[in-house]
Amino acid sequence: MLDGELAAQLYYQDLLRRFTFFPDFGQTQIEAERIGGRITHSIDIDLLRSSLTYGVYLLSDRTGQPFIDNVVERVSDVRAPTIHQYSAVPFFQAEVPIWDRLLVRAGARYEFARLDVDDFINMAGIGVEGGELSLNEPLFNIGLTYFINGYSEIFASYSQGFSLADFGRVLADSTDPIATEDFDAAGQEVDN
Question: What's the pLDDT at 114?
């Protein structure tokens, strides 16, 4: 009744991207280290002629943007603070034929994200107190496919996406004293 396939993927990225020197500003580089993975399990539900895929995405991302020159005098040694992002995203996706010509696909995922920010002094000379931000967001999708014949089909779908703001940039550009934990940490949900 249940046939299944288990899949796992892991990845690692060590990134160093250096920017051009600008007079009166200096030179910075992006330093990032990411490790992540995905585990999925897919099963066919023969009785319903349906399939279900579920699993989890995991990510650890540590990124910062320090200055690397000593030519320009400045009050800060970083353009953007080091931020460590942890994410875990459980999900499921189902595919259910309603009859021979109509197929429904639907799913959901839940975005769990935590950002840890180091203390730093920003470009305006403002001390920024590091801390932790947490974001949690449920997201949904649904799609319908109607098979006109063996060569043509029409479909309609709705899905939600989610992205995190560039918190490092906001903290780095602040002209008022700010604590990371006081920051409004709402991500952006997008309907497609």
Answer: 92
Contact at 8 Å (CB) between 185 and 157? Answer: no
DSSP per residue over 1-67, as a string? -EEEEEEEEEEEEEEEEEPPPBTTTB-BEEEEEEEEEEEEEEEEEGGGTEEEEEEEEEEEEEEEEEB
pLDDT tens readout for residues 26-63: 888 999 999 999 999 999 888 778 899 999 999 999 99
Distance CA 173, CA 170 (A): 5
Q: How many CA atoms lie within 13 A of 7 on its CB side?
A: 9
Please give the pLDDT value at position 3: 61
What single letter denotes the amino acid at residue 89? V
AA identity, residue 165:
A
Task: Give the type of residue at 16.
Answer: L
d(CA 84, CA 34): 10
